Amino acid sequence: MVELFIMEYLTVLYMIMAFLFMDSRYSRRRTLFIVSSVTILLMAAVAALHRAVDMDTAFWVYAVTIHIPLILLLFTLSRFRGWRLIFQQLSVVLFCTLIHHISGMIYYLSGGRFWVLVLSCAVLSTGVIWFLIRFLRPLFFQILLELHRGWWLICLVMATYYIIAVYLIPGYVGFDRSSIIIKPAIALLMLGVYSILMFLFSNVRKEAEARYSAQLSALQLSALQSRMEAVKAAEHAIRMERHDLRHRLLAVAELVSRGDKDAALDFLDAAQKRLIEQKEIRWCRPPVLDAVFSSYFDQAQNQGISVKAKISLSDTLPVNEGELAIVLANALENAIHANIKLPCGQRAIRCKMVGSPGVMLELSNPCVDAVSFDSSGLPVAQREEHGLGVQSISAFCRKHGAVFQFDLTDGWFRFRLVL
Q1: Which of 61-75, 250-264, 359-373 shows the lowest mean pLDDT across its residues?
Q2: Exposure of 289 by Cβ count < 10 A (0-12 exposed, 13-18 middle, 19+ buried)?
Q3: Cβ burial, residue 107 (10 Å; 0-12/13-18/19+)
Q4: 121: nearest Cα among 105, 100, 93, 92
């Protein structure tokens, strides 16, 4: 009875931990349904295993029975692949074995009281799950996105612990005196190593946030400076036109006095066109976004790229204006770089953006290069250190729950965002 309870409880705990450590590619409801279905199937398999073999064999085979389906489940649902996927799996194993070993030690020291085992499992599981949701999970997902190297070494350390704790040290915590101290001690030691890793990850995250803040400040400063220069240039041109207005009025009066009305009208029409050309263009009301649009559209036009834009945004936005400006800057910069590869007559950027009923953006540009997409629908960078803009856009969408899409259709690359 006790052995079956432990194995079934660990099965449920493994699935809960897998759900917490997994960034699923599917909706929360669908993910929960799949995880629940797999949990029920595994619990039935564990019950059949307990009936079919003796306790020692059941405990030995149990790890394979659970961990192989678990890695397949993560591979099917998780957004991440490679060593990051293995890190997710080993993190699940670490916390589950930690709860199992400590609760088993408490059970053994209590003299084999079943209610002590149940209570210790419940208390430890509640505490660990609360800690994961409250503190570790946000940091965990942030690091999976931002750390690009060194995962194999981290996984090697954790895999070594897994092999030692599950297969190399004999006995089962709670039933065998030989493992009652050493397995919990190794689990706590590995938890210390994991805590050091999380501390280092936290520093990496702080550095990334500092870089992001610096990038945001630099973008705002650059865009606003560009906007101020454009405004000053327009004001200077208007002052010159105003200075010349007296001479133009005299010329028009002379033409009218001579009866040459057509020449006077043509002269006034030419003056009006010059004023319209000097008119300041304001793309939207939010000042930082307006500055970003102006800066990058000016860059595009200077590169011979035709710009067609329809933008309608209110003063208030559902997200931080600076963060949305970073998304627009990255997307427009990628569009400009893609256009430069084309002949001048084929260069174009089309931009549509509205703020009601929600923020919706579509940015498109012609593209001659073949573009491949990963399993998450993100364009795959063709060269090292490229693709950082797409990663920044993806991180923004994940943070704010935005829906985004990249696609290449009929020679046009499109980026769509719905917030």
Answers
A1: 250-264
A2: buried
A3: buried
A4: 100
Structure tokens belonging to residue 239: 């002052």
- The residue type of 51 is R
Joined tokens for residue 307: 């710009």
Three-point CA angle 198, 201, 204, nearest 5°: 160
Question: What pLDDT does residue 384 have?
Answer: 47
Q: What pLDDT is stored for residue 385 in this prediction? A: 46
Q: What is the largest CA-CA distance in the chain?
A: 119
Strand 348-354 to 360-366 pairing: antiparallel
First to last CA, the chain: 52
Least confident of 62-66, 128-132, 209-213, 358-362: 209-213
Task: Count CB atoms within 10 A of the CB of residue 401.
Answer: 8
Best CA proximity match to 77, nearest among 12, 20, 152: 20
The closest of 54, 73, 58 to 10, measured between CA atoms, is: 58
- 8 A C-beta contact, residue 113 and residue 23: no
SS3 (DSSP) at 406? strand
Burial 32-42 (b: 16+ CB within 10 A, else e): eebbeebbeeb
Instruction: Note the pLDDT tens digit of each residue in 153-180.
Output: 888 888 888 888 777 776 677 666 767 7
For residue 156, give both structure tokens: 């090697």
Q: Give the closest residue to 418 by CA, choosing from 404, 407, 398.
A: 404
Q: How far apart are CA 331 and CA 327, in angstroms?
A: 6
d(CA 352, CA 360): 8
Residue pointed to by tokens 């280092």 = 200
128: which residues sit within 8 A by CB, 6+ positions away? 95, 98, 99
Strand partners, 409: 412
> For residue 22, how many other CB atoms are within 10 A of its CB?
21
Does pTM top 0.70 for this prediction?
Answer: no
**Are 332 and 289 contacting, i.e. CB atoms less than 8 angstroms apart?**
no
Whether the bond into 357 is cis, omega within 30 of 0: yes
Cβ-contact 58, 11 below 8 angstroms: no
Side-chain half-sphere CA neighbours of 27 within 13 A: 4
For the chain, domains (ranges, CATH) are: 2-207 (no CATH), 283-419 (3.30.565.10)
